[in-house]
Amino acid sequence: MAKIKHNNFIDTVDEVLSGAKKEGVLHLYAEDKVLTGRTIQIKGKEMFHFGTTGYLGLEQDFRLKEAAIAAIHNYGTQFPLSKSYISHPLYNELEQKIELMYGIPPIITKNSTLGHLAVIPTLIRDEDAVIMDHQVHWSVQNACQLLKLRGIPLEMIRHSNLDMLEDKIRQLTTKCNKIWYMADGVYSMFGDYAPILELLALTQKYTQLNLYFDDVHGMSWKGKNGTGFTFDVIKELPENCIVVSTLSKTFGASGATIFCRNQKLRDKIKNFGGPLTFSAQLEPASVAAAIASADIHLSPEIAKKQKDLADKIAYFNQLLSKGNLPIISKNDSPVFFLGMGTPITAYNFVHRLFKEGFFLNLGIYPAVPIKNTGIRITLSSHNHQQDITALAEAIEYHFPKALEETNNSENKIREAFGIDGRKNERILESKIQELFIEEMNTIQNIEKLEWNQYMGKQNIFDWEGMDYLEKTFSQHRDPTNRWDFYYYTIKDHKGNIILMTFFTYSLWKDDMLATESISMHLEEIRKTNPLYLTSKVLSMGSLFTEGKHCFINQEHLLAEKALKLLLDSIEEKYNSLNADMLVLRDFEESSNYNKTIRDQGYFKIDMPESCVVQNQSWHTYEEFTKKLSPRSRKHFNKEIEPFEKYYDVVIKDKLSKSEIARAYQLYNNVKDNNYAINTFRYTQEVFKNMNESPNWEFIVLALKTETENPFVGVMFCYKNNNHTYVPELIGMDYKWAKEYQLYRQLLFQTIKRANALQFQKIDFGVSASFEKRKLGAQIISKVAYIQARDNYAMEFMNTLQNDYKSIAKERKCI
After folding, report:
1. Is 310 a member of any domain?
2. Cα 614 to chain center, whole Å?
3. CATH code at position 190
4. If the chain, 814 residues long, is cut into consecutive pieces of 10 residues, what is the mean pLDDT of each piece?
5. Residue 362 burial by Cβ neighbours in a 10 Å radius (0-12, 13-18, 19+)
6. Is position 632 within any domain?
7. Which of 101, 274, 429, 438 is 20 to 30 A away from residue 280, measured at CA?
8. Which residues are within 8 A (CB) of 59 and not within 5 positions of it... i.e. 6 or more apart?
9. Range of the structural domain that residue 710 is part of
């Protein structure tokens, strides 16, 4: 299989968060000598604190503090023993009081992350399966990864998509014993709720279905005795439901609690629940603080605290509703999410609120999709009504100003979040009359000389190449090979072209750039479900082309504004098409517009490296090899030149009907053997249209020893105006590939042909860069910029990636 450089998910996350850190909105330090909960000091400025997850403010309650201090005096800073041996003196009292709250004996763990690691591998049997909401907390997803090593099916659905959940359940019903669905009770970013009643109804319809809720953000501020949102809905815990809650966050102490109805299962988790068995227990101070908090939860005081917070939440909701702000999930939780759309708008807004004296949290990728960047605002009992009033006024004042300064609009934000908005307005175009944008749907409406002047020397997208692509893929009968074309030209008021590009709208496989093992796994599923994990994508360029898909006159004073106008226009197109993903490619890593594009709501990923041969002119093999490194010269003399004698090499402008059939067979051989870049299979029309185009030719290799057999290799090559030679596709008979170095010979014959035609450049594509480098190719790093409706596909790919890495490491150890 051809090897390519794959994007690393962690690198993408690191770049996004590093950018936010540079903007001064992440990885901050509180500087207070004393914390009160109401305010917090950052960089010398005291701010009202609207970023806590201690919603009832119990972490500052004097009773919890005094209990913790007394416990340290009486028992020390820690009790360094596993609970499997002995628990320190306060544990029994805490467990009894938590049982009084819930009516069920708890399992207490150091924190919820370790709690999931203790419960999930013990709870889930080898014959079971797991389905995760893709927004379920990271700690749940991380614990579930351990199940993969045991061969337990691990599926993921889009956020709260019950239709998708039901489809997954039906697929797993005959294969598994129990099916566990993992979700949050209250989701930490948007503050929205799990559809618990609907999920309980599904458990009645599918008796194999069990529910597992992480309710750490629903704790204390909701429910009788502060037992949390999930218990407030279900009232009584059924046998088929597990709930994990927390003693941290709103409870004001530390630790986590796990509840299940089955006594035998509780004992099993406590006997061998990973961190429960082998990790240190909660410190005495934490247990003492939790006991003090439990006393409050068991008293009428908790209801008063809940009502006080609920009144503040209702008041804030009332204030926000006056301004019709894009609050993403309107409910009675203490978590609010104000949509910003793009990171640059969020940075601008956060800095504005910081200056006004309000601390808020940034919500950014990967916690939310990059285009769903926003501000997470949390209320607590510490906030005074006048603080809330001042915050609402500051939001109302600064929100439109942040939008204006960052070329954003409320309508764009509503589009990004799928909220009903006003009719689209071309704000940038109306403001900047010196720029004018034209959109065309066919190359036929664009002047050939003008297109070729700015775009025509790249790859196969000269005017004739675009004409071929339109005739081949536009209105194709096969939806996987059907593309819509959009051409954009931006001019100044004098008619000078500043920017020119084209986009295609088509179906992509979500694993197109995933590792081969993932694609091979997914292709097995696609044998019965051909469109499994596919997306509708509006992409710069096309799946058939690579290279500089966008011309920008960087010397023009309005170049950056022209790019922003393009981004506005394609975002409108993206929304009108209701596409799943918007992709800008292939930019070089050092692009001057990296920050401009990312600030408009894109994250950057690494693309496969591009291979290019340039400015080669030689008459003999000796001249050719002088251009190679000493090591590559040895490779040519040993692995390439000696094998040329075994082949008859013929250049054909046209293939016969039988030759087209053979060429298509060889193309399919390569397609079936190569998942490095996993695209849809091209149909025979693609090759028949090549045969009718004067710009295409075919380098055909036949083995001299196999006179009765058809040719064994073919390179499908495009000739771009005597400037760029493009070996677009390859076909091989693998029976002869290794013995006669067929692939390497096809590469060299392509170079030889381009040299004979005096082409100045060969676009050698994006795979097998190691082999192409040995023949003199220059390797160019490329990046793409992406927007997506949600993070589901990327997170699911990352889940599969981790799965295969773990299996590979295990096999290596064995």
Report:
1. yes
2. 35
3. 3.40.640.10
4. 56 79 89 95 96 96 97 94 85 95 93 89 93 91 85 90 95 94 94 95 96 96 96 94 95 94 85 70 94 97 97 95 88 94 93 96 86 94 97 96 92 85 44 81 95 92 95 94 97 94 96 86 89 93 93 94 93 92 87 85 88 90 93 94 95 95 96 90 95 96 84 96 91 92 96 94 88 92 89 72 48 36
5. buried
6. yes
7. 101
8. 37, 252, 253
9. 611-784
Whether residues 196 and 284 share a domain: the answer is yes
CB 267, CB 260: distance < 8 Å: no
Q: Are strands 241-246 and 256-259 parallel, antiparallel or unpaired?
A: antiparallel
The answer to whether 245 and 260 are in contact (CB under 8 A) is: no
**Phi and psi dihedrals of 264, rounded to 5?**
-60, -40
588 and 634 assigned to the same domain? no
The whole-angstrom separation of Cα 503 and Cα 469 is 12
Q: Domains in the chain: how many in total?
A: 4
What predicted TM-score, i.e. pTM, was given to this entire model? 0.79
- Are 589 and 734 in a shared domain? no
Tell whether 350 is covered by a domain: yes
Position 791 scores a pLDDT of 78
d(CA 243, CA 133): 15
Name the β-bridge partners of 373. Answer: 341
**Both tokens assigned to 407:** 């070329």
> Is 5 a domain residue?
no
- Judgement on whether residues 594 and 618 belong to the same structural domain of the protein: no
The alpha helices in 733-791, defined as continuous H runs, are 734-737, 742-756, 769-773
Give the CATH number of the domain where residue 764 resides.
3.40.630.30
* Continuous segment of H or E residues that includes residue 43: none
Assess whether 586 and 626 both reside in one domain. Answer: no
Q: For residues 617 and 548, state if they share a domain.
A: no
**What are phi and psi for residue 632, nearest 5 degrees?**
-70, -30
Contacts of 101 (CB under 8 A, 6+ apart): 225, 226, 227, 294, 297, 298
Q: What is the pLDDT of residue 808?
A: 43
How far apart (Å, rounded) are the C-alpha atoms in residues 98 and 115?
16
Distance CA 219, CA 247 (A): 8
- Mark 76-99 as b/e (b = at least 16 C-beta within 10 Å): eeebeeebeeebbebbeebbebbe
CB contact set of 535 (below 8 Å; sequence gap of 6+)? 507, 508, 510, 579, 580, 581, 793
- Rg of the Cα trace of the chain? 31
What's residue 361's pLDDT? 94
Instruction: Give the residue ranges of DSSP H helices in 279-336.
Output: 284-297, 301-322
Q: Are strands 647-652 and 696-703 parallel, antiparallel or unpaired?
A: antiparallel
**Within this chain, do residues 79 and 173 fall inside the same structural domain, yes or no?**
yes
The reply to whether 338 and 383 lie within a common domain is yes
